[in-house]
Prior knowledge:
By secondary structure, this protein is an all-alpha fold. It contains 3 helices and no strands.
Amino acid sequence: xxxxxxxxxxxxxxxxxxxxxxxxxxxxxxxxxxxxxxxxxxxxxxxxxxxxxxxxxxxxxxxxxxxxxxxxxxxxxxxxxxxxxxxxxxxxxxxx
Length: 96
């Protein structure tokens, strides 16, 4: 593996046991391969989190920039209560 850097990692006994078991079962050829897979999963999760966060920020910005008048709190609560009632009825029908 070109340009690989060796690192030292301290793990709990349970983590190490799980790592060894994954290698012994043939899921991975080596503990290094399992660790590289774990880092790839971690990187993917971080990227997905960043993408979700950016999407949320964009939604908030669109909401803040919306030129329509704000909905009074009482109206918003009434709308949410109606929505929740509809959802509860639908859930009860599905449960039958």
